[in-house]
């Protein structure tokens, strides 16, 4: 028996021993193997996954805790409440919505707080635009509206995702205002526990608990929700004393309230660059602190008025008997320099990889490099044990879409969705468990542990080529349509984009050449 022969026996996974080896082989049979799939999240990755699964005749239920599709591109002028500082654990502290409702029903002024806690807004700010042109982020069968430019706002991107969900009848599959609380594998089904928040009357809310069973689960919840707050001496006290003067970049919305202020941005990624450029015209002085990490953007990407400084060592705790109001803020850097009179601090320190609804696959007590062959999340810097960043190796009926970054997200995530639909429909075979493990371990050796493991900065095109070749080996002979590789137009656009980023980084071109501001 060939190890890639599909077995038509009507169950989710067939286990058997290869005659060539003692390896355990996973074969997803065609037909009724995966009939019903839960998709967690209705951002672009969740919506495209639902569309491709639906096109294979699979029943799909999409869970979305917000009231609209869009994920990170869904702009909300309100910010999510911040957790206690510091927050270095990948799993944010839980809240009990039912207790909150019991104490606050009837108090209309608390309505926004309930909604914000149940479905915290994402990081989209008012003037956010894409930094990859729309021509490189077009989903299959769904062109951007005529006249759309390369650079659009988050509102326009959300509308594009929404129109896609309507066009392909995905919106009818979505349970809005529904939060997934726990996902566990039973004897042969995945059990998904969720809560739905409904508004019964003015100021009155109701939470309905749900339990559903599925043959497979796709996690498409993104990775911009669990903020990372480093444990810097004095930071906790600053946040306690001046909650409005210290915030994470996830809560930034508009360049308002920075007039004449000295601002410290901690972090050297895209958020620090964007926020710095927005507030530069009004702020008195902006410092941008960096640890000198691999993911730091070049200094040439910053507004020329911003000064890059070394890593923060500590925040001086002010004397409470000081007559000065507000008290001066002093920050000490690791090189010994002191920054005086800091008025605002914005933590552009990123996010944890966190899946709190999969607690059995998380172990925050072990270092990232000590991950075993079962765990998904350790310190929150990466997701472990995923074949091609998608399929959970010990049980591929658990899949993830949307893990990698430094990609043309819309196009990249659609290819992942096509792979999931191909495998779950039985038209594409997974390798053996040992082969998936071998490929995963080679990738770990190549890229190392931690945040860089999911970076596609240099690997995007090669990864998609290999993924498409794998899909096409099986799918055509089993009645599926051949998946097209990235177009020559797309590849040319990417080459040009890489050239621009390189020349801006080297100071040959001004940052305005990127045209995404």
Automatic annotation (TrEMBL):
<dbReference type="GO" id="GO:0004499">
    <property type="term" value="F:N,N-dimethylaniline monooxygenase activity"/>
</dbReference>
<dbReference type="InterPro" id="IPR000960">
    <property type="entry name" value="Flavin_mOase"/>
</dbReference>
<comment type="similarity">
    <text>Belongs to the FMO family.</text>
</comment>
<keyword id="KW-0521">NADP</keyword>
<dbReference type="GO" id="GO:0050661">
    <property type="term" value="F:NADP binding"/>
</dbReference>
<dbReference type="GO" id="GO:0050660">
    <property type="term" value="F:flavin adenine dinucleotide binding"/>
</dbReference>
<dbReference type="InterPro" id="IPR020946">
    <property type="entry name" value="Flavin_mOase-like"/>
</dbReference>
<keyword id="KW-0560">Oxidoreductase</keyword>
<keyword id="KW-0285">Flavoprotein</keyword>
<dbReference type="InterPro" id="IPR050346">
    <property type="entry name" value="FMO-like"/>
</dbReference>
<dbReference type="Pfam" id="PF13450">
    <property type="entry name" value="NAD_binding_8"/>
</dbReference>
<dbReference type="InterPro" id="IPR036188">
    <property type="entry name" value="FAD/NAD-bd_sf"/>
</dbReference>
<dbReference type="Pfam" id="PF00743">
    <property type="entry name" value="FMO-like"/>
</dbReference>
<keyword id="KW-0274">FAD</keyword>
<protein>
    <recommendedName>
        <fullName>FAD/NAD(P)-binding domain-containing protein</fullName>
    </recommendedName>
</protein>
